[in-house]
Task: structure prediction
Amino acid sequence: MKRVNILLDSTSFMYFKPYIKTWGLDYTRFEIMVGSSSRDIRLNGNIELQSPDQTKPVVTGLAPTGNTSSTTGQLVFKMNFNKPVYFNSDKRLIIKEYDTGKTKEIIDPWSVEGSGTSTISFYNRSGLLVNAKYYIIVDSAAFFDFYENNFAGISGKDIWSFSISVTGMEEHDLTMSFLNLYPNPTKGMLVIDYRMPSNYQPYLQIVDIAGRVIAAKILPSNQSGMTEFDCSVLKSGFYFVKLTSEKGVQVRTFIKE
Result:
């Protein structure tokens, strides 16, 4: 009888995992079979792989909390974890009315960014009401780490609650202003139609969901106007158009398909 040694390292058990977009493995029990063919198995045995990290991801920070302000009823939400996490798009993040428990919005999975990092961000599409209180529910296993340890989720109404302050609305007099975007969603050119109070110089910015300024330009100091932005260079996702003058700020959201 001749003894043959075959080295099986961790890469021998790896396969491509779509959620984390890289190669990984399952820490579980495997059966190893040896034979002349799949119909002639002569030896078999079991091996169990142990994960080097069995600790679950933990949230270290949530934003916004308490009283916050918004001129549009749209907010950027952030979750900080103690380790990089990945988003499971089959799970849900839900904004609910604090007093009634009624669902206000189920977050669009396409708005969730930061998968593979320790900071997750997303934003709501429907406007939230001023002086109303809300809370966020996060499904169990909505996030997991590289070793597939699942985040426990957020289920209590007082863990991540917030309200929209009227202060942010009072700071800007926008009664004579508007900002329209079309087509929205867009694959190419985005038309930006705006009106600002007269004698004010408008400043336009295109901002991604992480707060990075993609493009910026000073617009003519006319009371109203129209400009275009070529979105074909952008990755698919959610973006903001921010129009600023000495009189106030307007923010609108658009989707790049």
